[in-house]
Amino acid sequence: MNMTEEEQIARLKEWWSRNGMPLVTGGLLALAVVFGWQAWQNHQTNKAQGASMVYQQLAESALGGKPDTARIAELAAQLKNEFGGTHYAQFGSLLVAKVAVEAGRLDEAAAELRAVLDKPASKDLEELARQRLARVLGAQDKAEEGLALLEGEADAAYLAGREEVRGDLLLQLGRKQEAFAAYSKAKEALPLNGAAGTLQIKLDDLANGDA
User: Residue 153, SS3?
Assistant: First the structure.
């Protein structure tokens, strides 16, 4: 049955009174989600760019000739305060630890590496911090503690490095047969085109009884 224009308008008003507000609210919520997501993405992009710039300055200070310790400390603190928990901040901690080791400040290096290991931003960073901390502990005559860090199974990508560090610590403790086994495992874990390098020298030294 055909409706008059007045009836059509009346029905439209009735429908709008029932559904208009939910539609408007839903539309506004959808727009808020879209714009909120875009704002968050822009914030993350700007944050990553800022962290990248600070990290680059830190790397230049740490790796360019004689390290500027005051500048390194300043930039490392900025990374932690403004970009804490990011990959850049943790790579910064690894750089600070490297400089500290070279300066003989092993306690400082260990603290930086433990901070990364406690809350790693990625598996790669976790394993890198683990292996480096184990080496620092060895340099502090804490080889047993370093070995404890290396317990458990490592992913295939990290196995060669971890087993070589384990071998170094075992050798430091005079456990030559175990060290030889660890070096052998490290060599077997290398990729097909990977060079054994110093790892082969360590194996040869132990095989010849020179270690």
Answer: coil
